[in-house]
Design brief:
Distance between the termini: 82 Å
Cofactor: Zn(2+)
Main location: membrane
CATH architecture of one domain: 2-Layer Sandwich
Keywords: Aminopeptidase, Coiled coil, Glycoprotein, Hydrolase, Membrane, Metal-binding, Metalloprotease, Protease, Signal-anchor, Transmembrane, Transmembrane helix, Zinc
Strand order of the largest sheet: 14-15-16-18-17
Helix content: 40-55%
Number of helices: 30
Shape: globular
Protein name: Aminopeptidase
CATH class of one domain: Alpha Beta
EC number: 3.4.11.-
């Protein structure tokens, strides 16, 4: 070949040379011709003579570039000090395809290499990178050059460096890893919790994976301008300030849980993603699905008081909602250009990936799952892997477990065997792990399991679950690891469903059956015949027959089935929620309330005033005892505190007089007398601010407070409150501030737009703002990014009329060149169609049910 082709984007290459040793201890240096091809973000270096096989060449490239203005590549960030001074810093974010914006490289995950980094800076700045600094040279009166140790072998997207005036706090793990948290000096006091979490979680992962963390240090940095939540650069993880900093005065229990989970996620990547990297972006779920799932495993082990597994249910609920539409995609999907690759960082890769792994872990047992992933990590350390490599590792470990359990069992011809704690079941079933898991990763969607139970005989069928229509495509078939309990069972029943229909024969007659025990499986269940009637009756008589996870699962499935072409009537789903007056589980209670709240907001936005008012009265009447029980404090367990936040926010939103009065009292005290922020409990701060923002004086006070607050958690609560105003001029001003990027940072613009769109007074305003400013938004956020998805899907998700559907279609057609590349546009249109169908089917049913059940 006469060409070396690298990735390069927005770099001005001035000279390039190639060196080859000539065998005489000298090097032949030749200048190269440079050809750039911007559409493919590539540059070719052409030689006059062909490059020879088995020869070593050294390529030297001189280039210059400006710091990027966005959130990718080597970009500039700013923050303001308390006295209003603007400080600059420079940071990197290379995932997925932006290392090429900082240096020419083979910018693909399978091209792993070691990197030696040197950075020149002024004395007032600190430079950090993936590896520790090994020396600093003084080059002038105020110029220094920091040299960093050579990195381990890794992909380009994990390279990182930051130059700032940040300060840090540090600690050391039991194995000697130095952990440091860097932040704006005025926010350093908010870094202590993240440091504690990082040390605990790193120690846990070393023990759980059986592999030492391979670097001598781990830095965590709160970057003031950051598009995503965080980034797992090896040894130098970067975060939004709200994902790393914890302020006890303004951060709620929910904020604390978020910081804990995000730190756990990024540190899990040090093994899943960094040590072992997916071969190509089609398998990004091997990084993100694992990291999302390890959040729950690690935090449950290190911070059991956070009761983190309760929130795994919400993760799977979100995945199912996204997966139950035609515009969904397989976990492992084709991704070829940068836009397609960016769109892979979505609910499917993260949440569905985590939920499928959770199902697999319960199917294989914890021992096999853990040993399998440890085998996978050790075998592919510093290499790349694909999904099949993971299945093979799990299968190999499973086979070993079988041998240990029953050495007399012939396994010579068994390639893939799964282990269950019930030995008789385990020894009687041989499974091909890859064949099972391919049905979950290479086809989109999720199964609906249809159950018809008659005494000791259970007939089961499966089909694809799609919201709104009955599927007619028979090609969808999953290998479903079913679990079930019955009226007479002492243990959980298990059955691997491999066909479209099957029969389970029980040992004795039973009066009821419930599938998907504790929602450890990724499927929805419909009970035909008297199945749902039996369940509703049981919940009313003794809801504790089911675990709280099973109760939340039943509520979820019932309301999903209402959307599934009316498989279950809305009235029956609502009947199921009647038992909630006896519910003691915060998880199940919030799930039931959440379903009612969604319906209420749909009626409110469609301006169906009689139903809006009736639903408001019903919710406040029916849940008054539990609402009145809430204290305006930060007391109780994390679960109790999060219930308090949600209930009081809902009560005030529904204009429940005692709630509004108390929130107004707290807000006025804060606004008029200058009371300390600590006088308002952090768990109710968002609710108090939302009530306060309803007046012009309150809105202006909060905007002024936003400008001086040094807490990202508080600022997020403030802009959410500002977005709840009924004053359209105020909402317009808020959107303008978001676009300007001075007071409200550009990173928060998508969230501001979404917050305004959830306000009935701001829904059309937000949509018109997006249409008017579409090109400006694309200048700020790249196509395919999570920000653009949030803007497109978020501003349209509450539309529910044919007129709105047509208007959205027209806009998408007008912006066809960009929109046609995005899966987000398909999601948006399907959401609107789904809402239209729901209203057509259910408004009359809802009106009748409310009239019969409202006292």
């Amino acid at each position: 070949s006469r060409a070396v082709v690298l990735h390069s984007k927005q770099l001005e290459i001035t000279k390039a040379f190639i060196e080859q040793e000539n065998g005489k201890g000298q090097a032949d240096v030749k200048q190269l011709q440079v050809l750039e091809y911007p559409p493919h973000e590539q540059v070719a270096f052409l030689t006059t003579e062909p490059l020879q096989v088995d020869k070593n060449y050294f390529l030297s490239i001189n280039y210059i570039a400006n710091l990027s203005d966005g959130f990718y590549g080597f970009y500039k960030s700013t923050y303001k000090t308390r006295n209003g001074q603007t400080r600059l810093l420079a940071s990197t974010h290379f995932e997925p395809t932006s290392a090429r914006m900082a240096f020419p490289c083979f910018d693909e995950p399978s091209f792993k290499a070691s990197y030696t980094i040197r950075i020149r800076r002024e004395e007032q700045h600190v430079a950090i990178s993936n590896m520790p600094k090994i020396k600093t040279l003084k080059l002038g009166s105020n110029l220094f050059e920091d040299h960093f140790a050579e990195t381990v072998k890794m992909s380009t997207y994990l390279v990182a460096f930051i130059i700032s005036d940040f300060q840090s706090i540090s600690g050391t793990t039991s194995s000697g890893i130095v952990v440091s948290v860097y932040a704006n000096p005025e926010k350093l006091t908010q870094a202590h919790y993240a440091l504690e979490v990082a040390i605990k979680i790193l120690e846990f992962y070393e023990q759980y994976f059986g592999i030492s963390y391979p670097l001598p240090k781990q830095d965590l940095v709160a970057v003031p301008d950051f598009q995503s939540g965080a980034m797992e650069n090896w040894g130098l993880t970067t975060y939004r300030e709200t994902s790393l900093l914890y302020d006890p005065e303004t951060s709620s229990a929910s904020d604390k849980l978020w910081v804990t989970l995000v730190v756990a996620h990024e540190l899990a990547h040090q093994w899943f993603g960094n040590l072992v990297t997916m071969e190509w972006w089609n398998d990004i779920w091997l990084n993100e699905g694992f990291a999302r799932y390890m959040e729950f495993i690690s935090v449950d082990a290190t911070y059991p008081e956070l009761q983190v597994n309760d929130y795994l249910l919400d993760t799977c609920f979100a995945a199912m909602g996204r997966d139950a539409v035609n515009s969904s995609r397989p976990i492992s999907s084709r991704a070829e250009n940068p836009t397609q690759i960016k769109e892979m960082f979505d609910t499917i890769s993260y949440n569905k990936g985590a939920c499928v792994l959770h199902m697999l872990r319960h199917f294989l047992t914890e021992e096999v799952f853990r040993n399998g992933i440890n085998h996978y990590l050790k075998k592919y350390s510093y290499k790349n892997a694909k999904s099949k490599d993971l299945w093979d590792s799990l299968a190999n470990v499973s086979s070993l477990w079988l041998f240990l359990i029953d050495t007399s069992h012939d396994i010579k011809n068994v390639c893939f065997v799964l282990h269950f704690s019930q030995y008789d079941y385990y020894l009687s079933e041989h499974f091909d792990v890859a064949k099972i898991m391919d049905t979950w990763t290479v086809q989109k969607g999720l199964p609906l399991i249809i159950v018809e139970q008659s005494w000791k005989r259970i007939k089961i069928k499966q089909e694809r679950f799609l919201k709104g229509i009955f599927p007619e495509d028979p090609q969808f078939l999953w290998y479903v690891p079913l679990t079930y309990i019955t009226s007479h069972s002492k243990n959980t029943g298990r059955h691997l469903m491999k066909n479209h229909s099957d029969t389970i024969k029980l040992e004795e007659d039973v009066s009821w059956v419930k599938f998907n025990v504790d929602m450890n499986g990724y499927y929805i269940v419909h009970y035909e015949g008297s199945g749902w009637d039996n369940i509703i009756k049981l919940l009313n008589e003794n809801h504790t027959l089911f675990s709280y996870k099973d109760r939340a699962n039943l509520i979820h499935d019932a309301f999903q089935l209402v959307r599934y072409a009316g498989r279950l009537s809305l009235s029956r789903a609502l009947d199921l929620t009647r038992y909630l007056q006896h519910e003691t589980s915060n998880v199940a209670l919030l799930k039931g309330l959440g379903c009612l709240e969604v319906i209420y907001h749909m009626m409110e936005r469609r301006n169906i005033s009689d139903l809006t008012e009736s639903l408001k009265r019903y919710i406040l009447q029916y849940f008054k005892p539990v609402i009145d029980k809430q204290t305006w404090s930060d007391e109780g367990s994390v679960s109790e505190r999060m219930l308090r936040s949600s209930l009081l926010e809902l009560a005030c939103d529904l204009q429940y007089v005692p709630c509004v009065q108390k929130a107004t009292e707290l807000f006025n005290k804060r606004m008029e007398s200058g009371a300390k922020i600590s006088d308002i409990p952090s768990d109710v701060l968002g609710t108090v601010y939302s009530v306060g923002a309803k007046t012009a004086a309150g809105w202006n006070f909060l905007l002024d407070r936003y400008k001086v607050s040094v807490s990202g958690a508080e600022q997020r609560k403030i802009y959410s409150a500002l977005a709840s105003s009924k004053d359209v001029s105020k909402l317009t001003r808020l959107l303008e501030l978001g676009m300007e990027g001075d007071i409200i940072k550009i990173q928060d613009l998508p969230s501001v737009i979404y917050s305004v769109s959830t306000n009935p007074s701001g829904q059309l305003l937000a949509w018109n703002f997006v249409k008017k400013n579409w090109n400006r938004l694309l200048d700020k956020f790249p196509l395919g990014s999570f920000s653009i998805t949030t803007i497109i899907v978020g501003t349209t998700s509450y539309f529910s009329s044919k007129q709105e559907l047509q208007e959205v279609k027209l806009f998408f057609q007008s912006a066809k060149e960009e929109i046609s590349q995005l899966r987000a546009s398909q999601i948006a249109l399907e959401n609107i169609e789904k809402n239209i169908r729901w209203l057509e089917r259910n408004v009359a049913v809802l009106r009748k049910w409310i009239s019969e059940n409202l006292k």
